[in-house]
């Protein structure tokens, strides 16, 4: 009863997570908005982030094509049960945490830096999967650098400090694709259960099906996704590095009775 989405989702006036224009020429204002959103929400959306929309739609297209392959094709990339690596294809429906199942399949693989990439976990079908993911990884770094720069300034540090602290050029970009098929009981099942991300920051692209929820003021709220925005989550590592100034955000996802939801957090 404490977790069922139908019972625990707040309806009524819904505060919206901040939306920030990353192309704002007013640098001080931009820093202030990012710092406030990261301190008060731990989550925000960014628009005008500079990643071309076809780079994003290609990433979504090849990911969707992979998940629509027959099960045997996907299982070529399956994590073995004893694997110590997070990379590979898997399902939370098969794995019970405290007796609970979540309605999601996923694929994890590193997308940057090159020495961290292991192409055995990258789907060979569709054939454009690799190029689309490499292209996205290239663009994403510009956004990550900008965010780390602002977040550093907000701690009174030089612009490059946080990025260096989380690995500098060796900072690992781990892509997860979430695939939430239609679910007969979206009132009962969650896609991913409540959690904070283990990352420093998470940069997420969803598809057009809403489902992300954020916990705030003791309630679960739907996050209204804005088209072409990137959703940013403060993760555990940034909360710790900032001595709690920036807050790792508690979030979860709901599922849909008719539609397949997908998301691409890095
Ligand atoms: C996650 C996550 C949110 C989403 O995979 O960690 O929070 O919108 N996903 O799918
Ligand atoms: Ni998450």
Count of DSSP strands: 11
Mean pLDDT: 95
Write down the CATH class.
Mainly Beta
Number of separate domains: 1
**Fraction of helical residues:** 25-40%
Shape: globular
Rg, Cα atoms, Å = 18 Å
CATH topology: Jelly Rolls
Low-pLDDT windows of residues? none
CATH architecture classification name: Sandwich
Helix/strand class: alpha+beta
Order of helices and strands: HEHEHHEEHHEEEEEHEE
GO molecular function, one term: dioxygenase activity
Pfam family, one: DIOX_N
Cofactor: L-ascorbate
Organism: Vitis vinifera (Grape)
Explain what this protein looks like in three dimensions.
This is Flavonol synthase. Belongs to the iron/ascorbate-dependent oxidoreductase family. The protein is globular and about 50 Å long. By secondary structure, the protein is of the alpha+beta class. Helix content is 28%, strand content 21%. The chain starts with a helix and ends with a strand. It has seven helices and eleven strands. The protein has helices spanning 5-8, 27-40, 53-67, 71-75, 129-153, 161-165, 236-241, and strands at residues 19-21, 43-47, 88-91, 105-112, 173-180, 201-206, 212-216, 219-222, 230-234, 251-253, 261-265. Helix 2 packs across helix 5 (129-153). The strands form two sheets. It has an eight-stranded mixed sheet. The chain has a three-stranded antiparallel sheet with strand order 8-7-10, with no helix packed on it. The chain has one domain: Jelly Rolls (Sandwich), CATH 2.60.120.
């Amino acid at each position: 009863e404490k977790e069922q989405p139908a019972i625990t989702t707040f309806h009524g006036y819904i505060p919206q997570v901040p939306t920030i224009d990353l192309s704002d020429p007013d640098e001080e204002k931009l820093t202030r908005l990012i710092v406030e959103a990261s301190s008060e929400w731990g989550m925000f959306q960014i628009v005008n982030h500079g990643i071309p929309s076809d780079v994003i739609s290609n990433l979504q297209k090849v990911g969707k094509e992979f998940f629509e392959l027959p099960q045997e094709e996907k299982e070529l990339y399956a994590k073995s049960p004893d694997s110590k690596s997070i990379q590979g294809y898997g399902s939370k429906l098969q794995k019970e945490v405290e007796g609970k199942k979540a309605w999601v399949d996923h694929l994890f693989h590193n997308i940057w830096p090159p020495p961290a990439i292991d192409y055995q976990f990258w789907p060979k079908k569709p054939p454009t999967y690799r190029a689309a993911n490499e292209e996205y990884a290239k663009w994403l770094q510009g956004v990550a650098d900008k965010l780390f720069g602002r977040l550093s300034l907000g701690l009174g540090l030089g612009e490059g400090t946080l990025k260096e602290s989380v690995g500098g050029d060796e900072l690992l970009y781990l892509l997860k694709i979430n695939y939430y098929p239609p679910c007969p009981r979206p009132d009962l099942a969650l896609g991913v259960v409540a959690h904070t991300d283990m990352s420093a920051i998470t940069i997420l692209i969803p598809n057009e099906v809403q489902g992300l929820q954020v916990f705030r003021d003791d309630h679960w709220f739907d996050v209204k996704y804005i088209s072409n925005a990137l959703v940013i989550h403060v993760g555990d590592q940034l909360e710790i590095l900032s001595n709690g100034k920036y807050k790792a955000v508690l979030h979860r996802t709901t599922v849909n009775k008719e539609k397949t939801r997908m998301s691409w957090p890095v």
